[in-house]
Amino acid sequence: MKILCLILTFFINQIASAQNDYNYPVSKETGKITYEKTLQASGKKELLFKRVKQFLALQDYGRVVMMTTHSGKQLNSSIIKQPITYEDVEEGKIFGNGFLPFQYRGHDYFFIFFKYKIYVYDNEYRYNFTDFVVYEVMDPGFGSDRRTESKNFPLEEFVDRRVYDRSHPVFVQRIKDLKHQLRLAIDGNL
Q1: Do the beta carbons of residue 142 and residue 159 sit within 8 Å?
Q2: For residues 42 and 51, what is the distance between their CA atoms, to the nearest angstrom?
Q3: pLDDT of residue 7
């Protein structure tokens, strides 16, 4: 039985590493690309919570965004309907949904949606960015329902695409920028 468990663990690790040629951090529990870290900070929980709220306000995930479709048509849309899904200052928790503009094959009609969880404690905070989904903006359909169409791909599947390697540095930089902006907010430097 122990040998069977070891063999299964080996194969699961091989599958996870095969799907992650870009060395993205992968959660052992979910198998999804997940950026998570606990960092030291100066301040009481309530102050850090306020600063996280400032960070989220500056991200403005509920804003109307100019989207360009495959054919170049410009559309305005609020793509995140509920940027904050849960918040509790006493618990020091803020959960929600965000997005990053994303370029693939030199095209700007892509976005990456993700879920975030930010926890604050006295002199410490933790972030968790996960559930990344690539959203491709398509042209509106014909007929009376002329809503914008889209294709959605979990990032774990999308990285297997033929020329993703050109987009890898863009994604990595967007994540670095996001973590840096959160750090600036936590330090009171926004």
Answers
A1: no
A2: 11
A3: 47
Q: Which amino acid is at 172?
A: V
138-162: burial string, b at 16+ Cβ within 10 Å, e else: eeeeeeeeeeeebeebebbebbeee
Which pLDDT tens digit goes with each residue over 34-91? 999 999 999 999 999 999 999 999 999 988 887 777 677 777 777 788 999 999 999 9
DSSP the chain: -HHHHHHHHHHHHHHHHHT-TT---B-TTT-SB-EEEEEE-SS-HHHHHHHHHHHHHHHTTTSEEEEE-TT--EEEEE--S-SEEEEETTTTEEEEEEEEEEEETTEEEEEEEEEEEEEEETTEEEEEEEEEEEEEE----SSS--PPPEEEEEHHHHTTSTTGGGTHHHHHHHHHHHHHHHHHHHTT--
pTM of the predicted model, to two decimals? Answer: 0.82
